[in-house]
Amino acid sequence: MALSQFGKNHVKCVVISMHINWYPGHMKKTKELIKENLKLVDVVIELLDARIPISSRNPQIDEIVENKPRVVVLNKSDLADSRITDQWIMYFQKHHSKAVAVNSLNGEGLDKLIGEVQEAAKEKIQKLVQKGMRPRPVRAMIVGVPNVGKSSIINRLAGKKSAKTGDRPGVTKGKQWVRLKGNIELLDTPGILWPKFEDQEVGYKLAFTGAIKDEILDIETVALRLLQYLCHTYPQCIKGRYQLNDLEDDPLKNMENIALRRGCIFSGGRIDYGRAANIILDEFRSGKIGHITLEKPDHLEGTISERS
Q1: 132-171 per-position pLDDT tens digit
Q2: In the chain, what are the domain boundaries?
Q3: What architecture does CATH give domain 3-18+218-285?
Q4: How far apart (Å, rounded) are the C-alpha atoms in residues 188 and 174?
Q5: Backbone CA torsion sign across 37, 38, 44, 50
Q6: Are the CB atoms for 31 and 64 separated by under 8 Å?
Q7: Sequence ranges of the binding site for GTP
C-alpha cells in the first residue's frame, strides 16, 4: 500500500495493522537439518544482529540445540551502538552464554570468537583424548536468521571464499562443512526464521535490518515505522543526517521533510514516498544515519531462558 494513496490517518492505521510473516520452505528443511546433524558438532555458534539481538534470535533455537555448548555472536557491531552492545554481552554472559561482538567486514572480534569456540569445546575434546582417541578439530555449527552475516564471517575465518555471500536474505541454500582457522570445522546452515511472529514488533525489526526480503513488504510503511522509532530514540542522528532543524510529532511529516531535502519529488510537486522510504532504509542499514541499536537488555530482562 503506497503512502501516497492514503491520508495521514489512514497511514497510521496501515502502520498498526500490517502483519509480517515469512517462512520459505527451505527454512523448515533447515530446522530438520540442524536437528539431524546436531550430534555431529561440539559447539553451536548462534549468530545475531547486534542491532536487534532479541528479534534476530530464533525462539526455536533453544529447543533445537538443547544443551549443546553455545557461543553467541553479535555481528554487525560496527553498525550498532557500542554502549548497548557492551550491555548485551554482559546480559548473555549473565544467562550462561559466552558472547562476542564481531564486525565481519574487517574481522574485528573473530580471534576472540575462535578462542571462545575452542574453550566451549575443550571439555568434550579432553574426554575424547582420555578415551584414547586422537585429538581432532573442534566441530561447530553456525545458526542464525537470514542476512545476519554468516557467509561473511565464515569466509573471514576460512581465509578464502568458502561460502556464498550476498546482501539478500537466503543466499546460503545447502549444507556444507568448512575448515576454519583455529583447527575448527564448521557446519554451515541456511538462515532460518520461524513460522509466525508472536510479536509484530519483531517482524518490523527484522524488516528494518533486511532479514526479510523487501520484495514481500510494504517498504513505505516499514520505513515510516522505522523513522517513527528513530525520531524517538535517536533524534539527533535523524536531524544531523537529513539536516532537519526540528522533528515533527507526525512521522509522515518527517518523511515528507526528508523527501524534500533529498529531492524525492515527482513532477507536479508530489512526494515520492517510495524513493524516500528506500533512502531511509538503505542509510539505516549501511550505518549512515549513525550507530544505532533498536533493543536494550533492560527492556527485556527475563526473556532469554537461562541455561545451566
Answers
A1: 888 889 999 888 887 888 888 988 998 865 544 444 444 4
A2: 3-18+218-285, 25-196
A3: Orthogonal Bundle (1.10)
A4: 8
A5: positive
A6: yes
A7: 75-78, 103-104, 147-152, 191
**The C-alpha cell of 154 is what?**
565464515
Residue 40 CA to residue 175 CA, distance in Å, equals: 13
Cα torsion 128, 119, 147, 197 to 10°: value is 90
Euclidean distance between CA atoms 41 and 29, whole angstroms: 18
Return d(Cα 137, Cα 154) in angstroms, integer: 16
Distance between CA atoms of residues 156 and 172, nearest Å:
16
CA 49/CA 173 separation, integer angstroms = 20
Q: 46 pairs with which residues across the strands?
A: 72, 143
Going by the annotation, the residues of the binding site are: 75-78, 103-104, 147-152, 191
Look up cell 503506497; give the residue: 2
Lowest pLDDT segment from 2-6, 89-93, 131-135, 188-192: 2-6
CA atoms of 278 and 286, how far apart (whole Å):
12
Residues forming beta bridges with residue 142, ordered by sequence position? 45, 188
CB of 50 within 8 A of CB of 76?
yes
Are 3-18+218-285 and 25-196 equal in CATH topology?
no
CATH code for the part of the protein at 25-196: 3.40.50.300
Residue 146: which of 170, 117, 121 has the closest Cα?
170
Each residue's pLDDT tens digit, 272-289: 999 999 999 999 999 999
Instruction: Give residues with Cβ within 8 angstroms of 149, minimum separation 6.
Output: 47, 49, 75, 76, 104
